[in-house]
Amino acid sequence: MPSLKINDLEVKVEEGSTVLDAIRAAGVYVPTLCYHPDLVPHGACRLCIVEIEGIKGFPTSCTTPAEDGMVVYTDTERVKELRREILSLILEQHPHECIICPQREGCSRTQCSSNVPEDERCCPVFDVCEFRKVVEYVGIREGTPKYIPRKISGIEEPFFIRDPELCIVCGRCVRVCQDVIGASVLEFVYKSSDITVSTAYNLPLAEVGCRFDGCCVEVCPTGALRDRTRKWDTPPCDGSCPLDYKPSYMVYLTSKKDFRSAVESIQSRTALPGIVSYICQAPCERDCRRGTLNEPISIRAIERFLMDNYKADLPERKSENGKKVAVIGSGPAGLSAAYWFSLLGYSVTVFEAESEIGGGLRFIPEFKLPRDILEKEINKIASLGVEFKTNARVSSLDELADFDAVLLTVGRQKSDRDLSGRDLRKIISEVISGREPEFKSVALIGGILSLDTARTLVRSGVEVVFISNRLDIHMGELEEAEREGVRIYKGEAKVQEVEGGFEVLVDGQRIAVDEVIYDNYVVDEELGVRIKDGLIVIKHNFETSKRGVFAAGSAVLDEFSIAKSLATVRRAVEEIDKFLGGNGFSQVVLQERPDFWLGRIANFVELKRVKMPVSEGKDFELVELGFGKDEAVSEAIRCLRCDLRLRLESPPLPPEEFMELAAEKIASAPETEGVVRLFDAEMNVIFIKGTENIRSLLEEYLEDPDVKYFAYEEDKMFTKRESELIQEFLQKHGRMPKYNDELDDLF
Length: 747
What we know:
By secondary structure, the chain is an alpha/beta fold. The chain contains 24 helices and 29 strands.
């Protein structure tokens, strides 16, 4: 292993390392702009120059191989002056008036007290700009040429803005596009003595095969490539999944035909993956960024393909802990609770008032949820040792005194009767059993339960109108219902009773029907716990008003959502486990670093959503047949891979001036006016506060377990400086620092 001396610090590095690697290993910072941890270095910006004994000139450390015995100096006066000279050439091609402005922090850049022309100001990413941080670290050389706008118009793209005016030609975007992603969309364009970055013939990204993964934006150190909206911290599909598994990873694994791993990624967070893959409203699809281009990814259909065709081992069950829990209700929430309790080592008994296990799942039409899928999930849970008791209505919680805890998953069983007094679940049950409906036409107003009823009734020859303004209904189910003959309207409906039936006004049309039915449902059984607005009242840990009795599922939610319902159950089970002395669920991390290579796909933007194969039976015995392997993979390949940009390493930034919050460090702080910033263990700013006495304020937080580091700056105008720093934080994060926000809540 080569051994080098970096500014008198001895360091050893692996064979094949560069001098920059050695500098980083020594904990020393040198400025870089073209360098990025995920890219092959090429020394374009030359800011990382150093002095090396025995070597003439000032080589770039990112391209110089590390050799044994090298003596390297990173911050001699000559090196620092050369960096400022190099930087002055870069600044000639980039707006920098805002960087040298004394009032830059917190500035909106919409009004300028220094009267800098708008096209000479810095871009909207100023407060998070890597280039700005590097410039401030290196320093602007006196005599740096004034920036002269080149008058290059920015280009509005889906998701991104291309602003060539701000490009410093560092080449990061080109290299990540060509060498890491493999799309080769961006390239260097040479014209006379000018070099710019663009696409072939400066065409829009969509026309040259862009994959819209966003990695080019992620590595851009300026605002030349930037997001049109605020950057997110997780792929939108992942962030909108209540079950907290990662749809983006499941889709990626499917595109790679690693189906077993994809199933494992689902099963690690979901008790009823087979059922969910058929009936989930799929909020992940609603938020899928692919929908901005044409249509979102069919995430639910891919999940269904996986669960129908591949199996994964169940998670390992903990040893019996000797404690018993009762679950009231055997619908999706009750089944899910039984599964998680069993894995944690509890003896579980599920009480069901009806003669069959399944609760509300039994009312879902078979064309939507085949009975064999439901039975398979029930049998899986029974195989874990769960005891099911049917025809066992619990009329009083006193009957369950022998159990260590009780979880109510009773759902919302009772119809809140309105115009018709009809129960949708009863209607579905009667039609399934072969009974003819009592009306010839009906308007169903509500959400997913009304839609299920509509699709059931239309199969019996009833003229059905479905009216909803809900956004949480799966788009595929609306398409199927319309294909089956249901008339669908979106918006608010006005209903009045007329002779022989009802008249419904919606979307400018008057519709005459025999019946109008709403799907308003409330919790039926109080069981001695507090009910408000038709729902069970719970504390933050899901405990009800009765000690040791908890509730989860749709009985505590104001909407019917299978994913949200099951999410509350998993959290409730974990809270009950902690209530009984357990440690909750152990975190299982299945995700590995994926392959970044996407390649280029002709007409990628135009790839259409793969449609589900449909049965031709006139009675619609099964509308959707499900994806085969080819359809699932083809649909998965349409994914933009939004997750990739978040997996790129962060480039090294200039060091922050902060200190560990300890008594000896606080003692060195001045007792003067200024502004203090407090940080948590991950170096996130959690408090910004101006004060008349910096040391005194720091002493107040010495025992705070959340505060690990601090930074301060002296300023007699501390209230003004505090406001500037808070404004800067707001522009960067879209929220207040944690402690500032909590203080605001107090008032």
